[in-house]
Amino acid sequence: MKQHVELLVGGMTCASCVGRVERKLNRLEGVTATVNLATASAAVDYDPGAVEVDTLLRTVERTGYTAALATPEASTELADDERQVTEDYRRRLLLAAPLSVLVVLLTMLPQVPDTAPFRWAALLLATPVVLYAGWPFHRAAALNARHGAGTMDTLVSLGTLVAYAWSLLQALRGGGHTYTEVAPR
């Protein structure tokens, strides 16, 4: 007879993450799992003779995410963690938004000359946006890469880092088209 357990899954950022966790859990013998991104949880029906709850938790963790049994204490802890993450994102946004506007103005307005001082200014303004504000994407992409997976975080991270690196290279070379205005997006 199957038993039911709810798991709290942390670190998922997109539908691809949900799919990875679901696939890994459903590959276990006697397990049927449904993962929900909005609630950061997994509803798991399992055969206790074939698999233990610890195996379910370790499977999620080996996939690159955090896992805990859904208990009132764990739910409260998760809510506190989510509040901290939201506050962290808010700080990053408050820094990134005005800097991004300045970068776009420096690189897209026809009145601003495409000269070395303006290129370097745009690059300096883009640096904290790409590296600090974009850090959650870069971190998630690196974690997913360690597990052989690509997600939307990977696309965002690669896109911004490549645009930034190319613009830096062009600034060092002293010419050519830059993509500094793309990096902070």
N to C succession of SSEs: EHEEHEHHHH
User: Could you say which overall geometry the principal axes of the C-alpha atoms support?
Assistant: elongated
| First-last Cα distance | 51 Å
Content of β-strand? 5-15%
Q: What structural class do the secondary elements suggest?
A: alpha+beta
Task: Characterize the biggest β-sheet.
Answer: 4 strands, antiparallel
Look at the structure and give the mean pLDDT: 92
Radius of gyration: 21 Å
Oligomer status: single chain
Enumerate how many helices there are, as a single number.
Answer: 6
Provide the number of structural domains.
Answer: 2
The share of residues in helices is 55-70%
Low-confidence stretches: none
**Sequence of strands across the biggest β-sheet:** 2-3-1-4
β-strand number: 4
